[in-house]
Design a protein that fits this description.
The protein is α/β, with parallel strands linked by helices. The protein is about 45% helix and about 15% strand.
C-alpha cells in the first residue's frame, strides 16, 4: 500500500491535538503518523533515519525532525522547542542479538532507557498543561506471553508495561493518562529484515506465521488504527492498560 493511499482525506477525530512520536520513518511509526494526520492532528514525526523520514514531509499536518532518542542532549534541545504536546507515542525499540548472562540486565536496561528518557523530558510540558496522553509501544512478547529466544526483548517490553501502569497510577489526578500497545507479529520492514537475515528465510517466515492463529501477520495500519483510538478523546476513560492486538497469539 502506497503512502499516498494511506494518507487519505482528513477525518477529524484528532482535530487540534499535537502528537509527537518516535521511530516514525517506517513500520508502525510511519503508519501511525499518517493515521494521526489523517484524523486532523498536528504530527511531529521523529526518527534517526532522515532519508525515510523525509517521505512523510509532503503530507499535510506532518512535521519531521531527525532525532536520536538515546541522546539526552538532543532530546533536551527538541523539548525546548515544543510549546505543547497532547499525545506522546513512544515507538522506538530494538531487537537485540543473544547476549550472555552477565550482559542480561544491561541490555534490558537499554531496552527501556530511552522510553523513560524521552517521556520524562516531555512529561514536564504535560504537567504544566495539566493534561496529556502517553502511548508506549510494548509487545505480547512480555509479561503477557513467554516467547522462545526473546528473553531480553520480552523483559524490556514487560518493563514498559510496568512503567505504563505506574505512570497512569501516579498522574491520573493531574489529567495525564498512559497506555501501551501490545502487538503480536506485525509485517514491518524490521520483521522482513530479520527474516531475510536468517539462514533459511522461507523457513523463518513459516516459523513466524505458525504462531499466528489467524494465519497472517498484522499490518502496521491495523496497529495504527488502535493508536488513533488511544490518542483520541474516545478513549478518555482508558488508562494504565496494556492493549493487546495480536490476532489471538496470546490465547
Amino acid at each position: 500500500m502506497s503512502l499516498d493511499s494511506r494518507a487519505g482525506p482528513l477525518m477529524g477525530r484528532l482535530d487540534g491535538k499535537v502528537i509527537i512520536l518516535t521511530a516514525a520513518a517506517q513500520g508502525i511509526g510511519q503508519a501511525a503518523a499518517l493515521a494521526f494526520a489523517k484524523e486532523g492532528a498536528k504530527v511531529i514525526a521523529t526518527d534517526i533515519n532522515e532519508a525515510k523520514l523525509q517521505e512523510l514531509e509532503k503530507y499535510p499536518g506532518i512535521q519531521i525532525r531527525v532525532l536520536d532518542v538515546t541522546k539526552k542532549k538532543q532530546i533536551d534541545q527538541f523539548a525546548s522547542e515544543v510549546e505543547r504536546v497532547d499525545v506522546l507515542f513512544n515507538v522506538a525499540g530494538w531487537f537485540c542479538k543473544p547476549v550472555s548472562k552477565c550482559m542480561y540486565f544491561k541490555e534490558v536496561g537499554l531496552g527501556t532507557h530511552w522510553v523513560e528518557l524521552f517521556a520524562c523530558v516531555l512529561f514536564r510540558q504535560m504537567l504544566a498543561q495539566k493534561s496529556g496522553n502517553i502511548i508506549n509501544m510494548s509487545s505480547v512478547a512480555s509479561s503477557i506471553k513467554g516467547v522462545v529466544n526473546r528473553c531480553v526483548y520480552s523483559t524490556s517490553k514487560a518493563a514498559v508495561i510496568g512503567l505504563t501502569k505506574s505512570v497512569a497510577a501516579d498522574f491520573i489526578q493531574q489529567g495525564i493518562r498512559c497506555n501501551c500497545v501490545c502487538p503480536g507479529t506485525v509485517d514491518t520492514p524490521s520483521l522482513q529484515e530479520r527474516i531475510q537475515a536468517r539462514e533459511n528465510p522461507e523457513e523463518a517466515l513459516n516459523d513466524f506465521l505458525k504462531r499466528q492463529k489467524t494465519g497472517r501477520f498484522a499490518t502496521a495500519e491495523e496497529v495504527a488504527l488502535l493508536c488513533v483510538y488511544l490518542a483520541s478523546d474516545e478513549s478518555a476513560y482508558v488508562t494504565g492498560n496494556p492493549v493487546v492486538i495480536d490476532g489471538g497469539w496470546s490465547l
